[in-house]
Amino acid sequence: MEVGREQQDVAYAAVFVSPAERAAETVAWFLRGAGQQLPLLHVVVPGLAGKDQTEGSPEGMATGIRSLLGQLPDGGRGLAISHTPFVERAALGLTGHEVEPVRECEGLLITLRDDGDIEVEELRLPGSTVR
């Protein structure tokens, strides 16, 4: 819930979660901490748990993330809850660069620019050191 409190000024147009029950629990606590309701666009996405035709390959994860980005309204922000190592595989597939494994309550900010380029920023907890 603490991480959600730090996001009170961010409005989410969509929420995407993996099929794991803990992913739904995480988003519920996150939104509760942020003082936000579940947006109208909220979807369970099997690909966020590596359940796609590629079994969670970096390329498959990147394709899935691009699809989610395409569902957002212009200027909208989505929240996707997934699991390690799929988060890291998505970053690799999107950028060609590996990121260090994310820990609990850490993640990536993925931005689709107007020119179609994708930027990935690691979101780490204060005091967290990358392994």
What does this structure look like?
It is a single chain. This protein is an alpha/beta fold and 131 residues long. It has one domain (12-123): Rossmann fold. 32% of the residues lie in helices and 18% in strands. The protein has 4 helices and 5 strands, in the order H-E-H-E-H-E-H-E-E. It has helices at 2-5, 21-34, 58-71, 86-95, and strands at 14-17, 41-44, 78-81, 107-112, 118-123. It has a 3-stranded parallel β-sheet with strand order 2-1-3, with helices on both faces. Helix 3 (58-71) crosses helix 4 (86-95). The longest helix has 14 residues, at 21-34. It starts with a helix and ends in an 8-residue tail after the last strand.
Concise structural overview:
With 131 residues, the protein is an alpha/beta fold. It has four helices and five strands.
| Count of β-strands | 5
Which overall shape is indicated by the principal axes computed on the Cα atoms? globular
What's the name of the CATH homologous superfamily? Phosphoglycerate mutase-like
Q: How many helices?
A: 4
Give the neighbour order of strands across the main sheet: 2-1-3
Spell out the blueprint of helices and strands.
Elements: H1 2-5, E1 14-17, H2 21-34, E2 41-44, H3 58-71, E3 78-81, H4 86-95, E4 107-112, E5 118-123
Parallel strand pairs: 1-2, 1-3
Antiparallel strand pairs: 4-5
Helix pairs in contact: 3-4
